[in-house]
Design brief:
globular; alpha/beta; five-stranded parallel sheet; 2 domains; 9 helices; 293 residues
Length: 293
Amino acid sequence: MSTLIASDLDRTLIYSAAALDLTMPDPRAPRLLCVEIHEHKPLSYMTEHAAALLSALKAEPGTVFVPTTTRTRKQYQRIQLPGLPAKFAICANGGQLLVDGVADRDWRRLVGARIDAECATLDEVRAHIAAVADPVWLRKERVAEDLFAYLVVERALLPDGWLEELSAWAEPRGWTVSLQGRKIYAVPRPLTKSAAVHEVARRTGAELTLAAGDSLLDADLLLAADLGWRPGHGELADAGWTAPHVGVLDERGVLAGEEIVRRFAARAAEAAASADPAGSTGADTAPDAPATA
């Protein structure tokens, strides 16, 4: 059985120095591997054991590992994950599908057509945000891949009700709004990680889809997967979000990333064994098996 593994990156598999604090203090004090350098400085990490597990997982026949991120292509390409290069990668929250590192133009046109048909323009959304945002708490406003906008804010200074008002304005115009850490994302509704993952599954013929993510923008990805996991930190954890087929991990921070790769590897091995009775280990593959850590 072929298995597609779609995983969010930041605060799911890889962690910045600031995000490492999610793990500490922890008596296990894992050894870390730097997987991203930006402006000549180390930026993101995973545990050495997670790196070894991921490298082995990517080499398994019948397994397709797909990094799935809200990052732009340029931001994603700074990351050097261990193991074989990914055949497919999903960037810009599903707006860009990379095949052997090259953007698939047909997919980008399809996504753009869906957005044009169903949503207000990016220019209209940005103009509204500019009119209602306050420089007191707004630090940056950015556009990602000409697809969506995000703000970097001083969260403590954000007025009560402002986010809800922006969401109410955006919803009938086909846009969604979410707050994640210090960032507010305004994203057109058709722009989803799950749509891009479905496309990769179609192209590869994958029979089983596994997924992991920690943020509100990962909810659709987890819902679209056959099995999924979320760490013990992040916006989904803060909201108490789950689903019957989504496992809730106790681990937080970089140790959650390690545990996620371990779960991926175990489920992919079970799927391969079930397709080959001679190699079956008799492991439990019931749908509700991952519902607890």
